Amino acid sequence: MSDKNDRSDFTKNDDERFSPDIVFKKRKTNTEDNIDNGGDVPKKEVKEKSKARLWLENFLYHYKWHSIIALFLVVVILFCTLQTCNKTTFDAYVLYAGGKNLRTFDDDAGEAVYKPVYDTLGTYVDDFDGDGNRYISFLDIYLPSDSEIAAEEDDGNTINPALLKENADNFSQQVLYGDYYICIISEHLFTEWTKNEKNNPFMKIKPYLPENAVIADEKDDIGYRLASEYGVYLSSTPLAEKSGFKYLPEDTVICFRILSQFTGGKKRAKERYANAETTLRKMLSDEAFS
Q1: How far apart are alpha carbons 243 and 113 in whole angstroms?
Q2: pLDDT of residue 43
Q3: Number of neighbours of residue 92 by Cβ within 10 angstroms
Q4: Residue 78 carries which DSSP code?
Q5: Distance (Å, rounded) from C-alpha 95 to C-alpha 49?
Q6: Which stretch of DSSP H or E encloses residue 119?
Q7: Ordered structural domains, the chain, with CATH
Q8: Taking the C-alpha atoms of 248, 241, 229 and 206 in order, what is their torsion angle to the nearest 10 degrees?
Q9: Please, what sign has the CA dihedral across residues 67, 73, 78, 79?
Q10: pLDDT tens track for 4-35
Q11: CA–CA separation, 209 vs 72, rounded Å?
Q12: 231-233 and 136-142 strand pairing
């Protein structure tokens, strides 16, 4: 009996049948069989591009960067237009600067004084731009005097010198170049800015008082008490009893900025200046709009 592993009785055909070249030979595709039999190589089907696609490819080839720039400009113009439409336009600008931080200084009801002062000012502003609304921009700047800083520190409060420096720079910029012509400021700031007649940034205040205004000589006299010819004490005006204003220091001064030589030639600046004059006269005569 021959051994199972003895391959001597295997025929040549058996070896070919078990050859790896035969077992794992790749099956030809129909195309390859066709070529082997002398057939033609089949052509790939090419999908024809539409005229619209060809036009677009040709256009982008010649005008790609033109199109990108034009699209960018359209987006910018659209963005600016939306910003302009949504932007609030103010009818008047009023500035406060002094030793009271209106954002943290509370009235008897525990409400920050800023809001009632803002609301009171709004009653004297007309709809100058005719948009159906009366908006006022009220900028408050905390600028205490040296004595007020010392009092705050005695009470255990910390004063940030860097913040005061920033506020002082902001106040100077607004007084010289800003849109805030109506100024309600502490006496120490008023004195500092009016001591030099040549650089005095304020107008004479009498033309803005009521025609029949009585000028008081002393503090307790009835009438408008002038800090100088360039300002009137808030405490002597009808505003002193208005919501929010009655919590401001008695020596607070109302004054009116001159039209800056840097902006005086601009039409918008002149319009804002004229609106501010009207608003100030309403404030000092207590003629609120209904």
Answers
A1: 9
A2: 54
A3: 27
A4: H
A5: 68
A6: helix 114-122
A7: 92-285 (3.40.190)
A8: 150
A9: positive
A10: 445 545 455 555 554 544 444 555 555 555 55
A11: 54
A12: unpaired
Kindly state the DSSP code that residue 172 receives in the 8-state scheme: H
- For residue 233, count other CB atoms closer than 10 A to its CB: 21
C-alpha to C-alpha distance for 232 and 146, rounded to whole angstroms: 23
HSE-up of residue 17 (Cα within 13 Å, Cβ side): 5
Tens of pLDDT along 152-171? Answer: 888 888 889 999 999 999 99
pLDDT, tens only, 233-277: 999 999 999 988 988 998 999 999 998 766 656 788 888 899 999
SS3 25: coil
Distances in whole angstroms, Cα of residue 59 to Cα of each of 64, 66, 68, 73, 260: 7, 10, 12, 19, 54
Give yes or no for a contact between 230 and 205, defined as CB atoms under 8 angstroms apart: yes
The answer to whether the predicted template modeling score (pTM) of the entire model surpasses 0.85 is no
Which residue in 284, 289, 277 sits closest to 223, CA to CA? 284
* Predicted local confidence at residue 79, as pLDDT: 67
Residue 129 CB: number of other CB atoms within 10 A? 14
Q: Hey, how many other C-beta atoms are within 10 angstroms of the C-beta on 176? A: 14
Q: What is the DSSP letter of 90?
A: P
Angle at 180 between CA 132 and CA 162, to 5 degrees: 130
User: Contact at 8 Å (CB) between 254 and 209?
Assistant: no
Long-range contacts: 110-114, Cβ < 8 Å, 24+? 113/244, 113/247, 113/248, 114/138, 114/140, 114/244
Distance in angstroms (rounded) separating the CA atoms of residues 214 and 228: 15
